[in-house]
Amino acid sequence: MRQLLVLFALLTCQACTDESSVAIEELPVPAASGSAEPNLAAGLDGTVLLSWLEPAGDEHALRFAALAESGWSEPLTVAQSDNWFINWADFPSVVPLANGLWAAHWLQKTPGSVYSYDVRVAFSRDRGLSWSESRTPHTDGTHTEHGFASLFPVADGLGAVWLDGRKTAGADHSDPAAHDTGSPDRGMTLRSAVMSGDLQLLADQEIDPLVCDCCQTDVALSSTGPLLVYRDRSPDEIRDIYISRHVDGTWQEGEPVAVDGWKIGGCPVNGPAIAARGELVVVAWFTAANGTSRVKVAFSTNAGESFSEPVLVDSSKVLGRVGVSLLPDGDAAISWLKNISNGRAEIRLQRIKPDGTSGTMTVVAETAAARISGFPQLLATEGALLLAWTDITESEKSVRSARIAFDAL
Q1: 209-233 pLDDT, tens digit each
Q2: Which of 124, 191, 206, 291 has a CA positioned 20 to 30 A from the CA of residue 226?
């Protein structure tokens, strides 16, 4: 159903004994049929935006809506093109920054192969009514992969991090495995840049010389500065979750959030998620170390300098694709996808306390287990959690969203 409603469902968790009767308020999304790849973002002024991609004739459009008390606003379009790289795991965003500046990013194809594309960034100073021309935060000019970007506010401008394939130039990009090399001289790198609101590049940095090729990055703002999480890659193919802290204008060398020891000879396409408030930080991630698929979470009370022992959230038929947010009382809310049957999956939500105590598990929605369902998005706003996802049925694909009160968990 697309109308605003309150759903009361008795939901049973097969992996635990808890049951939950939870009120879920569905927020209809003003997106066209065929929409997908949602992203949620909150500004320092409390503005909350939901963005997505939707078909526009032979093109794709990046559209967004702002959250109001009554639900999502009428949508606006950032840009549209028939030359974008459309990928279930590498999605665009529209992000409120600071001092009235908003930014958007999308992925544009470049000559070379289907895996050759650039990050494009544009700005708005009138709350998305109009947008600047776009430019890339990278200047290498190689026809390689640039994507999985995260945007965040920096002073009066924009900080961006992304996976950068400039060192893979010359590889056979018609086959993604051909440049999937574990050599720091030829592998995927993690880079950053700072851009001013007039599209000037102010700084750039290589953060890590070798990372997993296609796992999402994520950034949160702590009291000490931005924190970045990503899936690292060692030359002997250990692909664990790392964190880098932004100190005195420079990203520090990444360190493991936890040592899972997941050795895998290819990208799992399953990045981590991070949330922060003050010096309290929480990171959630997926791992299949030792052949067991698991969702884990770990907390830090010193702005990411060190983390607690990981808490196991779920280890039964999990697909990962995690989200995480911090609640007002310091607990975390974790979302993830869990395989059920017949190609279907549940989007699950659970409260986890910093001491590892778990609350009641809640099933928010059901969607396809296949890649087409993408990555559900979780965000804590004032008074409630927001969840956005791509709903897949036999007849259509569309973006949906729901609002869940904190005390419902």
Answers
A1: 999 999 999 999 999 999 999 999 9
A2: 124
Res 156: pLDDT: 81
As to burial, measured by CB atoms within 10 angstroms (0-12 exposed, 13-18 middle, 19+ buried), residue 60 is: buried
Strands 102-109, 332-339: pairing is: unpaired
Residue 127 in this model has a pLDDT that exceeds 50:
yes
- Give 26's pLDDT tier (boundaries 50, 70, 90): very high
H-type alpha helices, 7-112: none
Domain span at 310: 5-408
State the Cα angle at 207 between 94 and 103, rounded to 5°: 15
Cα–Cα distance for residue pair 312/260, rounded to 1 Å = 12
Tokens coding 261: 């020891």
pLDDT of residue 23: 79
- Contact between 350 and 359 under an 8 Å Cβ cutoff? The reply is yes
Cα–Cα distance for residue pair 262/268, rounded to 1 Å: 11
Q: What pLDDT digit, counting tens, does each position of 34-65 carry?
A: 999 999 999 999 999 999 999 999 999 999 99
pLDDT of the residue at 22: 54
Q: How far is CA 320 from CA 38, 170, 405, in A?
A: 17, 33, 23
Q: What is the DSSP letter of 403?
A: E
CA gap 6, 354 in Å, rounded: 30
Whole-number pLDDT of residue 115: 85
Nearest alpha-carbon partner for 338 in 380, 303, 302, 367: 367
At 185 the three-state DSSP class reads coil
Distance CA 191, CA 144 (A): 14
| Residues 6+ positions from 403 with CB-CB distance below 8 Å | 24, 25, 26, 27, 384, 385, 386, 387
**Are β-strands 255-256 and 332-339 bridged in parallel, bridged antiparallel, or unpaired?**
unpaired
Q: CATH number of the domain at 254, please.
A: 2.120.10.10
